[in-house]
Amino acid sequence: EEAGPGRRGERERSEEGSAERGPGAAFHMFVLMEDLLDKLKLLSYEEEALRRHNMRPLSRHYFALPTNPGEQFFMFCTLAAWLISKAGRPFEQPQEYDDPNAVISNVLSELRSF
């Protein structure tokens, strides 16, 4: 596989950065995702958020591996909206075909107001 312009240098910098942080740095995102999933389960996300939207439960590595960016983004937005509502703020649930920039802007705006 040929590296495109600039790709080789990016990969080398990435590998150097991982080496500077230690051998476990590459797996840190997996640990964070498992921690996130444990916290969501404590908040009963499966019953309260997923069933309402007819969605499947998250896998242990759902956000750690880029598999389907559109689906993952929508799941993130759904969970963010649910968490904001759970915190006592009214927040409209984003729809799958809403403008991603507008959705993120709304989420960030609401989080800044906390």
Written overview of the protein:
With 114 residues, this protein is mostly helical. The chain has one domain (23-113). It has helices spanning 7-21, 28-42, 45-53, 69-86, 100-112. It is globular, with a radius of gyration of 17 Å.
| Envelope shape | globular
Instruction: Please tally the helical runs, counting DSSP H or I stretches of 4 or more residues.
Output: 5
Please give the domain count.
1
Q: Flag low-confidence runs.
A: 9-16
The radius of gyration over CA amounts to: 17 Å
Largest sheet: none
Return the average pLDDT rounded to an integer: 84
Distance between the termini: 47 Å
Order of helices and strands: HHHHH
Strand content: under 5%
Number of strands: 0
Structural class: mainly alpha
Percent range for helical residues?
Answer: 55-70%
